[in-house]
Amino acid sequence: MDDGAKRARRRGRRSPLASVALVLTGLLITGGAYALMTAASPAQASVDMSSQQTIDQGRKLFASNCATCHGMALTGSPTGPSLIGVGAAAVDFQVGTGRMPLANSAPQAPVKPKVFTDQQTLAMAAYVASVSPGPAIPKASQLALTGDATKGAELFRINCAMCHNVAGAGGALTQGKYAPNLMDTAPVHIYEAMLTGPQNMPVFNDDNISPQEKQDIITALKTQNQESGVGGFELGSIGPVAEGLFLWIFGVGAIIAFTVWLTAKAN
User: Fold this and answer.
1) Across-strand partners of 172?
2) For a tag site, which of 83, 92, 143, 267 has the least CB within 10 Å?
3) 139: CB partners within 8 A, 6+ apart
4) Are the C-beta atoms of residues 228 and 161 closer than 8 Å to each other?
5) Average pLDDT of the residues of the chain
């Protein structure tokens, strides 16, 4: 083989770096395509809650994880309340926020990491709703943040702020119970809480607060969460009374201490 042929062969050989780049490009394209497919198919959209297969799956999950306290007939027991009439929304709220299954006895079920997947949660919700219908899980159109934030903020102040704080930061109640912080709560769980009234919360059915007004409240909360504070330290958004007390104790206290220091220095 002459020198010209050897040079031509060397020119046609692919560099090792080109192979690496080709593999990385393939991985990026595959990963991007997978992300788009999964984003277009959320768990709730992929579960047909009316199908017998979904209900049967939910019945098996319920029997092995929930029936000990709530009973297979949903009538409850000394260790768990009845689920008759709670509907799919209550199951999705309690299980979807990790409150259930209850880890230990306490005045209130706390939010914790979820035990079940979204699909399993919806299957159990479908089973409970099949035994005893109740409030349904809200539709995606009811959760869009397109409501009237101004009206929603007014409704929240009238109906919710006395427990959850005007900023939705939560607050203490009696007997070791509390109104949870709503800042990081998903819109679907805020809506379901209004529908079902978990813990000490009253039920706000569609006759008390209409679906549009619920959407307004959620829009107001999420709009408020997205806005940055413009008044300095937010102090955890604990409200004007607590913030005023903080200013009185530390602000006025600092002025008094400075005055005493000046007087002592003058003498």
Assistant:
1) 178
2) 267
3) none
4) no
5) 82
